[in-house]
Request: fold
Amino acid sequence: MAGEIESMASNLMSKMGGDTISSSTPCIFRIPSILRRHNKEAYIPNAFAIGPFHHGEKDLEDKEKIKFNYLEGLLYRTHDRERTLMEWIKEIAKYETEARGCYAEEIHMSKQAFIEMLVLDGCFIVELFRKVAGEVRITEYDPIFPTSYMLQLLNHDLILLENQIPWFVLEHLFRLTRGSSETKSLLQLALEFFDNIFSSEKSPIQLDLFANQKIQHILDLIRSSLVLPLREHQGQEESCVSWSPIPSSVLWSPIPSATSMKESGISFRKVRSQSILDVKFRGGTLEIPLILVQESTEPAFRNLVSYEQCYPYCSPTVTCYALLLDNLINNEKDLEELRKSGILVNWLYPLDTTRFFKMLCHDVFLKEFYYEKLCWEVNEFQQKLWPKLRAFYIHNFTNPWAIVSQIVAGILLVLTFLQTLYSMK
Reply:
């Protein structure tokens, strides 16, 4: 028995000797199975594999030739294509170890294969951004822009958590490949590419918000574009704590649905804001920036929520917003209420949109809730006497038969009064 114990102890010690815990903090993760099971298609690329997690998958191989097409076009604008490509590869090779450390699992690719993948995928992305922004001319033989569906595929594939390469790789490749006539930064190009992912109302891009912000990858950039405007307005560090005090004895409770709010006298108003997350409650009115619901909305939200769940010390601000929408939208009537208020533009079937919002936060864990004070204010408003009476009246006395009953009861009351009055004479 002593020998067996010694053997087991030795075995455990040998396993601890490896790099079981990385010294670097990864920022690109596989989606946890508990989240993936709710909609697997929202997490996997439809056409383009970016980074190592889906590299070499059979059903994505045919789009690799498009990446090479873009790389060739980029090199065509240089004087010595082979020598230039060697310089790019040499530069990116310096960051191989750092790039591998960005992934939450060991990447089983050789040094050559890994660096070639980073260069090819990175050059494809920066060239794509340039073409969309008009920094580079789009030829009639371009494999993406003449078709109506390719950009839609890319809008989906480039925002997936499992489909990322480090932002610093993109920055280095952008700097190495930048033409003398180009005026826009990589940050601006990327933000312009995704400017209508959540809203059809364009807001001016505030590049100064990102001055001291370390961007991890494209998905992190999209999240930062939503969260940073809130931090600027409220002058707070990025945290999901309740930024305004509420009674310490009160625990957070969900807000009622949109229809229930309307019944109690709460109105909805669409407001313009730099971020869709900027929701406020003022004087009985819930102010919500416009949100666009389209094919890419669910994958965007699900991957942002997964990123906030996986990335250490990341405030779950987008997750809190998703949960707030979950509270607001219980059925198609709630969806219609927000649509009539101009807050929600829905390009999907109402039933599909309702289901999406109701399932978005399943199996999601929150330590703190960003909208805690807002929910408390809404619930406090509903507990006042007049909103409660109004909701009771609307809920019980606004259907046609109830109205008829009220009229008949009123007539009988008047007749009874008159009969009593005449009998007293």
